[in-house]
């Protein structure tokens, strides 16, 4: 018999924003990944903003409802949102906060108890790793106690001296309960505004549900109230509202002398805090002078308003609500195409890293998230643990810790630094899994980043093939000749690589060549049911401003300056080319620290040679550059060349083809699967200086051929190497791996 599911309550998400256009867009964008079985709408109350907030809201026209607030008063803005709300529940989130996907589902579950009038969850601070708020109770003076470690529903009763508290950045209320108590008291322009509502919700006989989940990440954008250091600069409202709150909620419980003592203590605390902030350089002398002028006014106003009580026009009434019209507008989340939560391990990740695996990981993560899936990337942090939501992807940057070896890793002698990173990434995945089901994990073969996942077997594991340690050794023969290095580092790494490739639940090969070469080098055959060839994909190129020199034809190289990338072959070919066409310019971009057999760098060798001295002005070694400079280099070059001796794929060729540039590579590895020889570029035998020089000369001498190859390459990129295609093929790989793991579990 089919169980009938109860319809989930409709929810109105309200964002109250003021001059935070960029963070506002990120907040709205994050709602596309909310997983809620009911309907929800998004209401943005803006104002009085003077930045680009209106433009941001306009981008979401037809998906969000919007209104303008005439005053820089959060309670006024919140009341407008309540008036507009057509859902059974109103959920407030700050304009610099990001909810996790289960946020609404977990908030709504609290209201299954009809006595609940408000509910809220935990709030991560700006790191995304530590909590800003968990459980909290507050008293009638507005003193908060965050030391409690459990929810306090037993304190939810009328006139309770201490009651549960919800942070405004992550709070929800039954709409009918908000209307019953009159909404927010507009005397609170900010500070104690949600505390006042919590007090009145409790006094009206409702329960406040404090949830151990329903996570929100609060990124603390600066505002007109707080600077980038989060220190309040203008404290008039803080002092005024504190006095008003005490008189409103504590006067019936305590004698006047107690109220006055609380008031004086709070003012002295604010005075001391302001002085400390000035000494630390966090506020200016003008801020301190303003504070001293405002204290007396804040006390006078707070006392007067507290004795008068709330103004009738400062609360929601029927007339105010009827002034705000509109129908419920369901927000369209992304379809959960694959119903998959992916954890992608990538030690390096942009913008801190721009090498091949880092770029591949970013493009895969963002493309797979764009299908509506939940994607986490675990990357290495140079300083602190932090979690950010970037282009639809949860990026966890963590500091590796030292971990004890598992018996399996100890048996093969896996190097400690390799194990530390893999085990740290595994621990972070386990942390994610405490509140979300992890469906599949993918890690690169490089540095055996998936080793801890293979030995633990908790989640299906995909290993993506890139350059392996075996092929790295081919470019570093001196290491092969070092017995101590081989025994302590290389041999264990080679064993771990083979274990990963043979025993993972799925294997991603970016080319047929990499599969063939690995099987030949490691002496085994992949399981055909587990391995899939999925070419890398790239996003369309961004349009960049380029400074062109019409007098010079530019040949571009991008890559590490090492033998495997064929830099020695290119530098040997360049003099031959320049003797024929002296007007050429060669731009050589990439890490130039790798030493040549001479003990110097390849750049130093070339510049010290006779050819280097002769052509120094035309051969420019630019080293590592930022992403903008690199994009501009691709856009402004005339020919791209990368004569690698081996590439498992060759992402740099895609980057050039994406910019409609003719390319020159080698007939080795995965390069022939990317570059169609004679159609979008030229392929030469690896290590052949003469043929490389001839290929460069052929292209630099023919503008028409360059245009023909460039256009053909761009079309090939669009047809075969899009990120959408890569993501769709990845979905099939993940599904296969999950099914394989499920079958294995059922057979046990």
Automatic annotation (TrEMBL):
Segments crossing the lipid bilayer: none
Domain Glycosyl transferase family: 545-715
Pfam name, any one: Glycos_transf_1
Record GO terms (molecular function): hexosyltransferase activity
Family matches, as InterPro entries: Glyco_trans_1, Glyco_trans_2-like, Glyco_trans_4-like_N, Glycosyltransferase_grp1, Nucleotide-diphossugar_trans
Top-level taxon in the UniProt lineage: Bacteria
Domain Glycosyltransferase subfamily 4-like N-terminal: 356-539
Domain called Glycosyltransferase 2-like: residue spans: 12-129
Record protein name field: Glycosyltransferase
Organism field: Variovorax beijingensis
